[in-house]
Design brief:
- By secondary structure, the protein is of the alpha/beta class.
- It folds into 2 domains: 57 residues; 190 residues, Rossmann fold, CATH 3.40.50.
- It has 11 helices and 9 strands.
- α7 packs parallel to α8.
- The radius of gyration is 21 Å and the shape is elongated.
- The structure holds S-adenosylmethionine.
- The site of S-adenosylmethionine (SAM) has 22 residues, from α7, β4 and α9.
């Protein structure tokens, strides 16, 4: 089979983007080279590998895990089983944080539930003088977090630990910005998710009965770690804004603002901290 025939075949079975990505993985040829070398024959080994990948992909196994990397805001991140695949949705929370950080470039920032590290790494790369921390509990996700940090932003301080415990290690009033894309899918919805998502770790998705467990706990445990005037940023699941806004108000946050994605869904919330008088 030639490169061209292979691309056409994979395109019919999957789609164009997946076809070129798989051919690039197996042959090392980027899309332009694939076009220039379209009459080149694939060898037997390449042919077999492509058939194996196609079968795996058709069973619902995520393309991102097959490729072993995925792009987020212009950088490629290592991904694989055990870590959440970066989503474009997360860009909304990162952009909101960027907007708020513009005036305090040397900020202290912590990314809770860091996964592959896309949030911590992006903020560190955009704010070189910031002190950025990343917290992750799962061993498997830690493997990818450490790898991505060492390749893309070695200044990020990585902490293995539970966000429900680790807050004790930081002084009150330490951070300018706390950001998190925590697990936020309601438990009962997990089994009905798209096939691909079911290959992703449950620990990265399960947000408790209504999906808000992490928002409540993180707000409760970490609010005091912010300076007065510091900012909390959460990525949100669909329809969670009003509920999360209420928790934030109850704990003394003000200037609470929702940020929408291109489809009009509120995907992130930012809130400014003011310590409550006892
Ligand atoms: C929704 S994923 C987000 C990953 C990453 N921030 C992103 O945007 O792609 C949530 C992450 O939280 C981690 N996690 C779950 N429970 C945790 C806990 N108690 N403490 C720290 N991390 C936790 C999961 O392993 C997973 O990597």
């Amino acid at each position: 089979m030639t490169v061209f025939e292979c691309r056409r075949f994979l395109e019919q079975e999957l789609n164009y983007q997946e076809a070129v990505s798989i051919i690039e993985l197996v042959t090392g040829m980027d899309p332009l080279k694939q076009s220039l070398n379209r009459r080149q024959q694939l060898d037997d080994e390449q042919d077999k590998t492509i058939q194996r990948i196609l079968m795996k992909r058709q069973s619902g196994y995520p393309l991102q895990y097959i490729l072993g990397k995925w792009s987020f805001m212009g950088e490629d991140y290592f991904v694989g089983e055990g870590v959440l695949i970066p989503r474009d949705d997360t860009e909304v929370a990162v952009r909101a944080a960027e907007e708020l950080l513009k005036s305090s470039a040397a900020a202290r920032i912590i990314d809770l539930c860091s996964g592959s590290g896309i949030i911590a790494v992006t903020l560190q790369r955009r704010f070189a003088d910031a002190q950025v921390h990343a917290v992750e509990l799962s061993d498997r996700a830690m493997y990818f977090l450490e790898k991505n940090v060492s390749q893309l932003a070695p200044e990020v301080k990585v902490h293995r630990g539970d966000v429900f415990e680790l807050y004790r290690e930081f002084a009150d009033g330490y951070f300018d910005l706390i950001i998190s894309n925590p697990p936020y899918i309601p438990t009962a919805e997990l089994d009905g998710l798209q096939r691909e998502v079911r290959y992703e770790p449950r620990q990265a998705l399960d947000g408790g009965s209504d999906g808000t467990d992490f928002y409540i706990e993180i707000t409760d445990l970490w609010a005091k770690k912010l300076k007065t005037g510091g900012v909390l940023v959460f990525e949100l699941g669909e329809g969670q804004f009003e509920l999360v806004k209420k928790y934030l108000q109850d704990l003394g946050f003000h200037s609470i603002k929702g940020y929408k994605d291109l489809g009009g869904t509120v995907r992130a919330v930012t809130a400014v901290y003011r310590e409550l008088e006892n």
